[in-house]
Amino acid sequence: MVRVVELEKRVLEANEVLARAVRELLDSTGTLGIEVLGGPGAGKTSIIEQIALRVKDKLRLLYIAGDVATTIDAERLERLGVTSLQINTGRACHLEAAQVLKALNEVNLEKFDVVFVENVGNLICPADFPLGMHERLLVLSASEGEDKARKHPFIVMAADVVAVNKVDVARAAGVNVDALVRDIRALNPRARIVLTSAKTGEGIEELVKVLELPVPH
Ligand code: MG
Ligand code: ZN
Predict the structure, then answer these.
(1) Would you say the pTM of this structure is higher than 0.85?
(2) Taking CA atoms, which of 71, 103, 132, 162 is between 20 and 30 Å from 2?
């Protein structure tokens, strides 16, 4: 048991070292890094698409998708003209900094203002594996109920920004969105919270501002 815990500690520490290398690489080229976290189907890719639609003419975007299988998400962003890379994680349920570092080394980062890294759809272990990005954007689906944050406190606490997504569906279904926001605030008072709908576009402009994307005026 003790050995298992030791091993886990070493894995986490090794990841932190590589996360710092990712951050140094991003900073060396002045590229803003945003990690997008959330459960399967929460709307991570859709939120990134909506942001990309609004800023892709002004900012050079790179998208890195972590998925257990398929290149579906990377193809979605490619279709918008966003340079995309796919990391297939196989059986792994989260991305690690080593994979992100490898992907970033495959491109000339000088050519990109912002990189979005979409983690594997999972509300549990990605919290423990920071990827060295400047911001961790959690996409939480409000339509799944007002107890979502309370059920997954660690990922809420790890987030810098929380997009409470699918608010249109949630309101129609009678979900108490205010209660969900109160829970997020209680768990993580420093998190910036934005109510969004990737479908209607609600909150996307605000999210662009909150993420401080370096959009030239
Ligand atoms: Mg996705
Ligand atoms: Zn995992």
Answers:
(1) yes
(2) 132
